[in-house]
Inverse folding.
């Protein structure tokens, strides 16, 4: 077993699922880098400990509740177990989309998102302002430009939602798996209820140069005014830019990783 996983967490899994941990744990690539693939005689699974140090809004307890609610729709697998410290759920077989395939299969991605956005609300609402304020409090390296941007958003207040729905909030090629049944979203740790235009704004940030195509495709599928959706997504852009920069800044300070520092420096250029 990997020494990176707290033995007490493995013991907790073993208590709930006897014999389950008698397999191999493989680290998974990602910006937090703490999830593991567990393969045993029963199949393949993903083990997601709570991030250490903590990351604002990432809450395994909320994540497991949300996944259980959404599992009835077939959009997510039902977790085998989960609490505030870790989450265990079935592994999603298939191939991750490439950046090129992400664009080529845009209509399928849009229909998958629309299916998610038509589900009942989960009861866990994403409020960006307190989240941004929490990042400001936790980071050590602050600067005047950051403070000014945060104050502008505090004065403006969050945009009034165009339409509330369950959101994934991290839709990009690396979180989409393709198999013979179609596309599947993975990595739901930032999912919550929020404005569909916020989801689209975040998706467009992951697909630079294709913003108009994504917005038009979604508006057509959802029978929304493309102009209205684009305007609402634009209202969320300053919030997303500051959120991304704040996230990278905190992760850079927590990890002392040079890639994180580089991404943080790049993100602040948009503020």
């Amino acid at each position: 077993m990997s020494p990176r996983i707290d033995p007490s967490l493995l013991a907790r899994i073993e208590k709930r699922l006897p014999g389950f941990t008698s397999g191999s744990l493989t680290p998974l690539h990602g910006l937090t880098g703490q999830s593991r693939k567990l393969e045993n005689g029963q199949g393949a699974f993903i083990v997601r400990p709570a991030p250490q140090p903590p990351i604002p809004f990432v809450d395994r307890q909320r994540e497991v509740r949300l996944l259980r609610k959404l599992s009835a729709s077939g959009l997510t697998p039902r977790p085998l177990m989960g609490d505030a410290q870790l989450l265990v759920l079935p592994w999603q077989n298939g191939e991750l989309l490439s950046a090129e395939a992400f664009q080529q299969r845009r209509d399928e991605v849009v229909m998958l998102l629309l299916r998610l956005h038509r589900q009942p609300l989960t009861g866990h609402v994403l409020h960006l302002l307190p989240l941004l304020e929490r990042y400001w409090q936790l980071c050590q390296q602050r600067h005047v430009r950051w403070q000014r941007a945060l104050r502008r958003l505090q004065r403006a207040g969050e945009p009034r939602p165009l339409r509330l729905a369950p959101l994934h909030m991290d839709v990009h090629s690396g979180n989409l798996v393709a198999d013979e049944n179609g596309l599947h979203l993975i990595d739901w740790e930032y999912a919550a209820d929020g404005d569909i235009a916020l989801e689209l704004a975040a998706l467009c940030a992951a697909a630079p140069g294709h913003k108009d195509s994504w917005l038009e495709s979604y508006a057509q599928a959802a029978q929304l005014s493309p102009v209205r959706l684009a305007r609402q997504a634009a209202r969320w852009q300053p919030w997303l830019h500051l959120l991304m920069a704040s996230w990278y800044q905190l992760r850079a300070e927590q990890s002392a990783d040079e890639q994180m520092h580089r991404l943080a420096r790049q993100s602040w250029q948009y503020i």
In short: The first strand starts at residue 24 and ends at 27. The radius of gyration is 19 Å.
